Amino acid sequence: MSAPTDTTDTPRETVHDFTTEALDWKPYVGMVDYESATPSQRAALSMTPSNKGISPYVLVLAHEPEALRERTPLFNDIMYSEGGLSRGGRELGALGASVVNRCVYCAAVHAARYIQLEKKPEVVEEIYARETKADLPAFEQALFDFAVDLTSDPSEVGGYHLYHLRNSGLSDLEILDLIHSVAIFGWANRLMHTLGEPQRKA
């Protein structure tokens, strides 16, 4: 496991439009220095999303190790656990939330993962072209519309939406997985917006 190389002194373009390009994320606040991190911070950093290297975002969240220690296993379980909604379906839920919240970095990550998993770049192309008005195949439309509605106006989401998802072929477990994937990105999008900005890679 490795900490990121510090590139904060290299000016790079901030990205404001949705893309499938891999992006970097530059924090507005200081990151925890892994070498001088406290034992509690190191313990929280020992498990990372996707079990990849420690990102700048995670090093920022490590300022509150107790929250990070709970957040990372929860995130991994919601997005990567076996059974229930497909990985691609969860990524589409995350993408829908990120489009509504205009989190360019999260949208880029989860659009790319959706394409990798489902081999349907045309779905992402349509979402990026028309955003919340995207016209998708029926199954993808059901997942995306639910993500949009839950993110835009959660107080209006209820029995009708669940009925529609069941009619689209989702089990109750799959519906719960979709809700979790959308909901956690309501949280993640707001943290990423507030704490930093997406940039093009060097």
TrEMBL record:
SUPFAM superfamilies named in the record: AhpD-like (SSF69118)
UniProt cross-references to InterPro entries, sorted A to Z: AhpD-like, AhpD_core, CMD-like, Uncharacterised_peroxidase-rel
Signal peptide: none
GO molecular function: peroxidase activity
Short name of one Pfam family: CMD
Domain Carboxymuconolactone decarboxylase-like: from-to ranges: 65-129
Sorted UniProt keywords: Oxidoreductase, Peroxidase
Domain of life: Bacteria
This protein's name: Peroxidase-related enzyme
